[in-house]
TrEMBL record:
Gene3D superfamilies: alpha/beta hydrolase. It comes from Arcobacter roscoffensis. It comes from the Bacteria. InterPro entries: AB_hydrolase_fold. NCBIfam families: esterase_BioV. This is Pimelyl-ACP methyl ester esterase BioV. The gene is bioV.
Amino acid sequence: MKTSKSFYSGFCLENEQELFSEYLIENDFTISGFSYGAIKAFEEALKTSSRVDKLQLFSPAFFQTQDKKFKRMQLMFFKKDAQAYCDNFLENIAYPQKKDTSKYFKLGTYEELEELLMYEWCEEKLQVLLDKGVKIEVYLGQKDKIIDSKKANDFFKDYATVYYIKEKGHIL
């Protein structure tokens, strides 16, 4: 049985799954998501009654190790000038490459940014998926300018196959 959606887009993005074609598995039993979309994919995998064999999380939005001040500042900068914030964000997700991500741009909302900054990945929920037989893959870029990929690697390594890719950034 097919899940309602198989790929979830990142903050300020839509239809960017082609950026991950090198890694992305597209079938009826795999759910995937990029950054903010990784949160949505994870939650979908938890709640769906449909069969899920694999969950692919590309550069999951991982901010639980950041302090409240960092999160407040991000929200303040977004509220002050959302377009400038998003332009900077698009530049940072492409780093260290010079990929043009503008064709995938969709202005994000304050609520989405707040949700991704405040989201807490839960070890118990990861274990629930493992107990259901879901294989979890996490893809992280060593040069990610958005998240601390080393801390994300340390968190996910006991629950997932983690691909820590050298010389790659947020969009791998």
